[in-house]
Amino acid sequence: MKAVKLYDYYSFGFNYQLLLYGSASKTVEEFVNDFRVYFDFIKEHNLKVTISSLKLQHINEDLEILGKLNKGKKKKEKIPTELHTKIINKITKADSTLDAELNTEISFLLDKKRFSNEILIDDIESVFSKFVFSELPEIAKYDFKECGKCLAFDRFTAAGFHALRGTEDTLKFFYSKLLNTAATEIQTWGSFYSEIFKQNKAGIINPLVSEELLVNLDNLRKYYRNKTQHPQLIYSLDEVQDLFFLCIKTVNQMMNDLEERKLISYLPF
């Protein structure tokens, strides 16, 4: 997935017109720069048929001559008319191919969420408390990143699934650190919670895990995790955002609890 700004297309169209109709009097160096903008856009958008159309016209031979001029003393001189005409004619002949390929490019306008789409897609770590995301286990990091992308692209039930997976992996990490024991493959959210709750109630864990964190973990398991894992829920935008906020809060609580017990460290060394 690659983010593309609408301005890139607007800018390309504007510069393309200047290249076709306003470059005859430019220097070799200026024309090279204008052509590079045109060709870089085509390459970045993987417009292979347009590139093939230009190559079939042997534009590379003209560009080789242009490149040699641009490396010499003539780079500041006006581009030779014959060379300019040949290159522009070949670009113009490829224009219908360019139009056809660009017509296959589809853009989606994303609805605004409570977090910006930029954060959801590229900066999900910023929604957690400071330093928390960097200390999460790798699967949890993966799932929260996927949750953000699914939420941005309106895949609400998938976003809920990943938010709960990320929270469960964090709970597994919390359980292992808190009780100083390795989690097994057959253990689930329920068994992690039950063992922590039992030892907490017996006073074995000191200081005690906060009641709020335990309630949040149990509520997520009871009302969301099981019903999402065993398909009983379909999420709307608001529902999954409410769930995501609760997952964030609960993950922050678990990681901050471990940090306060000095079982993990937020320090960069």
Q: State the distance separating the first and last CA atoms.
A: 34 Å
Instruction: Please count the beta strands (DSSP E, at least 2 residues each).
Output: 0
SSE topology string: HHHHHHHHHHHHH
> Could you tell me the radius of gyration in angstroms?
29 Å
Can you walk me through this structure?
The chain is mainly alpha-helical and 269 residues long. The protein has 13 helices and no strands. It has helices at 6-21, 28-44, 48-56, 59-71, 81-93, 95-102, 117-122, 132-135, 138-152, 156-179, 189-201, 211-229, 237-260. Helix 4 runs antiparallel to helix 5 (81-93) and helix 9 packs antiparallel against helix 10. The longest helix is centred in the middle third of the chain and has 24 residues, at 156-179. It is elongated and about 90 Å long.
